[in-house]
Structure formats: structure tokens, C-alpha cells
Amino acid sequence: MTIVTRKQQESLQESLQQVVRLLDRHRVVEDMVHRQDMAKHELVEQLVHKQNLVELQKKLASLHPADVAHILEALPLFDRLLVWELVKSEYDGEILLEVSDAVRESLLADMENYEIIAAAEHLDADELADLVPDLSSEVRSELLGGLDDEERAQLQSALSYTDDEVGSLMDFEMVTIRDDVTLEVVLRYLRRFDELPNHTDKLFVVDHEQTLKGVLAINRLLVSDPDLTVHDAMATDVVTFHGHDDVGDAAQAFERYDLVSAPVVDSNHKVIGRLTVDMMVDVIREESDAEVLSLAGLKEEDLFSSVWKSAKNRWPWLAVNICTAFIASRVIGAFEETITHLVALAALMPIVSGIGGNTGTQTITLIIRGLALGQINPSNSGRLIGKEVGIALLNGLVWGSVLGVIAWLLYRQVSLGVVMMAAMMLNLLVAALVGILVPLTMQKLGRDPAYGSSVLLTATTDSMGFFIFLGLASVFLM
Amino acid sequence: MTIVTRKQQESLQESLQQVVRLLDRHRVVEDMVHRQDMAKHELVEQLVHKQNLVELQKKLASLHPADVAHILEALPLFDRLLVWELVKSEYDGEILLEVSDAVRESLLADMENYEIIAAAEHLDADELADLVPDLSSEVRSELLGGLDDEERAQLQSALSYTDDEVGSLMDFEMVTIRDDVTLEVVLRYLRRFDELPNHTDKLFVVDHEQTLKGVLAINRLLVSDPDLTVHDAMATDVVTFHGHDDVGDAAQAFERYDLVSAPVVDSNHKVIGRLTVDMMVDVIREESDAEVLSLAGLKEEDLFSSVWKSAKNRWPWLAVNICTAFIASRVIGAFEETITHLVALAALMPIVSGIGGNTGTQTITLIIRGLALGQINPSNSGRLIGKEVGIALLNGLVWGSVLGVIAWLLYRQVSLGVVMMAAMMLNLLVAALVGILVPLTMQKLGRDPAYGSSVLLTATTDSMGFFIFLGLASVFLM
Prior knowledge:
By secondary structure, the first copy, chain A, is mainly alpha-helical. Helix content of chain A is 66%, strand content 7%.
């Protein structure tokens, strides 16, 4: 007997490379077939062609659905759809769940309605709920018709929550037990299952009304005396969630308390579902991805979507940027006369605005992170402002002086150096204040502090940088 | 019996607020005591003072160590150390593990050697390994002396790996079994434990040389016939890791295959440790944090560290920025004569450089993310370059025209509009190429593609933006 040990990431990269190689070979043969207009050797090449695809199919069948999903993400659209055709249909549903929203869209667009419905048949209600929003109303109603009453109720319950509520990620499969039986009975009861729900690390102890009374950890069940009652072995200090709790908060709780699963209860404390760590890991990954992307003004984007589609994804931010750049440009325009008198100002002004933007980005990044981790609150934000202002003053003094001296040496004008230093100091102050107040205000208004904050920041540091520097120059140097 | 249900995030915020309130009250009393120079009411106030601290201590004792860690992160240094004093010492070790490196440093600095050693006594070898690098050599050797042979060997093994290797996060506690016994025997064997190691969702099946032969999932153990042998019930298709595997890759494997724990083996396939999902969640969080911070040129920073310390953390990047800003400034300096002739150029040039920087940031963010997720490889990078160049040309055409028209309308000069459009188009091309090639090259050189990429990007788009725009202007408009 041999153990298939997957040294995972490497073998996944290898799988991806193998798929790409097979696709390439397939393409070469296809090219030959086309070029020769299906003339001689036709039969042979057709065979080779088929053989490549068979090999590819075999390779794909050997892979975990999550790996297939990963490979689909990494393939350009044409290849992606070819591979998607070859995947065994029974895994379609799982793979659709694993890929990112952008890629899922491209896969669904290529599927017939009956294929989608076939793929969805293998999914649980909570998984279906993930998929349903992406389906046409036609497919959706057909799907709903095919469910039994319990599944339909579960699906509707899951759909009644928004994407960022715990209820939307709830698993409905779980094992519940009563507290008056012995562990021996529990062990016997479990043996009647074909398998336990994934990530079952605890059993939920409920009364006859499904009200949660505690949890029995599987590990406790295994080490305890079988004659003990559930009541004596269970834990009553349980981390529970409500359907409307924020998923990000739930993920942080999983992280903090090292949870594998946790019950979701309604307002009467009845168990309505279960959260599992695999979902929470996905939430953490997605939230951090979204944060990085939104700092750059992006939504999730399929790496291999068309130029047109990607361009549209990036345009909203670009349009905003053009407006802010235009405003900054008009600020400079107002000082054109000053610049004509002293053209050195044109060369020095981007230093003031650029460094303001960069220090502000540092501040804003730290603040956004502190907010996301719940470390910043009204009681300490004053102190943070103080600290950032302090840093801005220190930096303004140190680096402003350095740049002031450089400006003086370059242009042999002491007053220019002094203006440079003063402008740096003031713009760093502006950057610090904007960098801290913008995300705090966003948060207070109930908006995502990451999204758009950095546009607002650089817009301000640019315009203010030019205004402060050129303004000081026209007052003191003209 | 009532169940303590913690609606977690909220109650944590409440705890934090409560602690802050108690600290405030404590401070008020202390101020009074000081102001009155310990005169009358002395006794009463001393009592109130004490009472506050007792209440605070009680509150802290009721919290999970991870929550105490969270509160410590959110407190300014002075309050943090006060709270730290009040925390029950038996949890010190756990809390030190939970806080960020920056905060840990501030806490350790406040502890006596014997306190550190007492805190470390409650930790396992793999946890100690996390802490040891932050300790003075004195404390370290004393600690090592207090360990038994097995623990010392484990600690040294853990320390022999670098921070980004799986071995450094390995847990040494695990349950191994033989494959020739029945499940009944396994169940009886488990009952001899006081408790199972955390996150035990599978038992490792080994031979007499500790060579891994398979795993027995706990959930399988529970549902199977007790008369079955381990051999018949175990799974042989096991995801395993090696000590030198990258932790990020391991975390991605945990994410993809929804693992709770996995064996770590040596080159002879002997089990040497275990990875658990809680560690991997921390890795995912830390990696994404590091990515966000390194995009802004930051290292992890204690939100409440001193101005001086924070400033030093931000200076390396600031220094680089000042150099690149200086270079861009000199590029403009070279065209001072051109600007004197046509001062409109000074007002328009930041638009060209700024928008180049922003579109480049979008590209670089997507590429860095694709690299981190392993979606970009040599076979598809060509296609990505093609796509980004396509987007740059499209954007250049569309937005370049818009800006060209605006420039024309503002300054009533058609040729200026044409130069503006051409410069935009070229700088967007530069931005796209730099945005894609810089991270790819970094990755090829084995370096972190996020760190410093965006400095290099904006440095290029600034300097090139000014050069292209002013260069074109001096050729075609003078």
C-alpha cells in the first residue's frame, strides 16, 4: 500500500503546468488539422487530438475539485471553457462554489440550463444559496421546484440573509443530542450515521424545543467515561452566533477562540444552523482580498477577462482620479504667473505633493487596519490623532529641512529653501489629518473605510500640496 | 443553568469599553490623590482607587486570553502596562503569543526575567519557539535549562526552521495509532487520555518506526463498526507537509482542502509533527496584513508606539520616496526653459504623471494578488501583458482624448491637446508594463513581489510622465 502524499502547493503547480502542456499539445494538433484543411493524415491527427483530450480528462478526474477550480482561475477564457467541458459533471457544483465570482460568471455563461440544474443537484441548501443569486430566474424556479420541502425552507432561510450576515453561510447539517442520556448512548447513536457532517468537532445539546443547552466536544466524548451523562460532560460556556451577525466579526471570533464549528441560534436561543471554520477561512481571505483591491479602487476581477470588461471595472476609479487630477491642475493654473516668475517652483512642487501623498497613505493604511481589527475606538482616537500629528511635525522638520537645503543648494536662494520646508511641514500635517479623519468619518457613517479613502487622500494632498507651496511662494518670494 | 452566550465581537467591544471606563475612573481618582498631595480623604480615596483596580482585575480575569490580547493591542502604552500588571500571570504566556510582535515587545520590555520565565512555563515547545526569538539570551538559556530532554529537542527542532517554514509552526502533540488494532481498541486507548490535543480531527496511523501509513478520521471512527480494524477504516490519501514547506502554501492547502489538521513528515515519511487550522488562519491573516502594509511601505507597527518609534518605522520608505521625488523633480528641472515658454505645461503635467501612477497601481495590485494565489505562471504571463497593454491603449485613447479636449478648451491650442493625449497614452503604456513586469521580475528573483513594487512603479510613472509630456511639448510645441 502506498500513501498518496501530496506536497500540496507544488503538486498543484505541477498539475496546472501539466494541464497547460496538454492544452498546448491539443492546440498544435488542432492547428495542423486546420491548416491542412482536414486533408491527408486526417484520421491519424483526429486520433491524436482525441487522445490528448482523453489524457487531459483523466488528469482532471484525478484532481480535487478545489484544484480544478484553481486551474480554471489560472486559464485564459478559451482554455478555461475547454477544460470546463471535460470536467466530470458530478463535480460541477462543487467547482462552481470554489471559483471566484468573476470566473463563476464566465463558466455559467457557457452552460445550458439543464447542465446548471444537474450541477446544482449535488449541493446542499446552504451551498445552493451561494449559487442562486448568479442564476437566471428561469433556472432558479426550476431548481426550487426540484427541492423537497425541508431543503426549500432551508434555501429560503439562507437567502433571507444578506451576503455579510452569518445566516448566509450557515450549514444546516448538524448533530443534536439531549442532555439526559449517557455518552455510551451518544456513541451508539453516532454509529447509526453513514458519516458525520464535515467539521463536526462538537455535538449540540438541545432540549425538545431545539433550545441550545450546551455543547459536547467530540474530543471530550472520546476521553470521558461512557457512563457519564451528556449533562455532566458538556460545556455550557459556548460561543454562539445569531443569523444577523456580521460574517467578518464571526470570522474574527473563530480566529480568536480557535473554533472549528459553532452553533447559530435564533432570538429564542433555538439552534438554526452551524458555522464551520472552512467558511470562515474563506471569509478572511475574501475580506483581505477585497481590502487590498478596494485600496486600489478595484472590484474583484477575473485575471483573464476581456480588455473591455476589465477596462470597465477600472473606469469608475479612473474617472474620479481624472476629476481630482483636474482640480489639482487648476490649483496650479491659478498660480501660473508665479511660476512664470520663478520656474523652479514647477520642478519642486511635485515633491511637496508626492511626499504628502505617501506619508498620508502610510497613516491611512494603519488606521484602516486598526479599524478592521477593532483596535480603534472613540476613547483612543484622540491619542492616535496626536501621535500622527507628532510624526508629521517630526517628519516635516527633518525631511522638510533636508529638502529645503537641497532646494537652496540647487537654486541658490535661501528664501526658496525656507518656503519648501514650511510647505512640506504643512502638507505632511494635512496628510496626517486627512489620513486619520477620512477613514474614521467613513466608519462613523457606516461605510467601508477602505473604499475610496485613498482617492480622497491623494486628491487632498495633491491639491493642498500645490496650493500651500505655490501660495507661500507667491506671498514670500514674489 | 444558563448558557453564557457571547455574541462575540460586540461583547468584546463592550469589554474593551468597560476596561477603558475603569481605567478612566482609576485615573480620575489618582489625579485627585495627587492634586491633594495625599492630604485629607486620603484613606477613602486610596480605597476607591484600590476598588477600581480590583474591579478591573476581576473583569480581566473573566476574559479569554485572546480577548485580553485584543484589549492590550487597543490600549495606549501606559494603560496597556497597567492592565498587563493586573492580568493573572498564568495566562501571561498565552497572551504573549496572541498579541502582535510589536505589542509583545512592549510587554516583554516591562517584565522581569523571572516573570517571563514563569509565563513561559505554561507553554508547549512549539509555542515557546514563537516566543524565544524575542527574549534576551540570558532568559533564553535559563528557559532551556528548565526544560526536559524531549521538550528541549522539540524546541530546538522548531527553532531550526525559519519563520516561513511549516516546521516553525508545527505542533508536537498528536495521537498516533497502529493499523492492526480494531476501532474498539482505539476507542479504549483514547479514553486513557485526560484530553486530546487541540484540533484533533484525525489520528495518525504509523508503523513501529513512526512512518505514516494513513489517517483515521475521528468522524470515521465514530460512525464505523468497532470491530473494524484501523487498516480497513483509515484513509491513505493524505495531505501531508514537510518541515521545509512554505507556510503560505500550507495555509492555501488548508483552505483548498478544508483541513483541520495534517501531519508533517520528514524525508523518510516519518511523522514529526502536526499542523492545525488555527495556526493556518493566523498565517492567512498575517500574510494579508503584511501585504497591505508592505504595499504602503510599512512594517508591522504598534498603533500606540511612540512618535519616535513610529517615525523610524516609516523612514526607510520615506527616504526612498524623497529620492524618487527628487529624480522626478530634476526631470522637470531639465525642461524649465520649455515651461517658461508655455506655463500651461506646469499645470497639466501632474495629470499625466498622476493618472499613470493610479492605473499602474491597479495593474500591480491585480498581478501581486494573482502571484500570491499562484494563478500566474510563465505560460500565461504573456497573455496578461497583452491584456494590460490593451487596456492601457484603450484607456489612453478614451481618457487621453477627454483630457486632450479639456487641455485644448482651457488653453485654446489644438497642438497642446494632441501632445496631452499622446503623453497620456504613452505613460499609461509605461504604467501597464512596469505594473506587470516589476512584480513578475521580483517573483523570479525570489523576492516578495509586494514589497517596494509600488515605490518603483510610482517613481517610474512620475519621472516618465514628466519626461514624456515635457519632451513631446519641447519637440512639437516650441
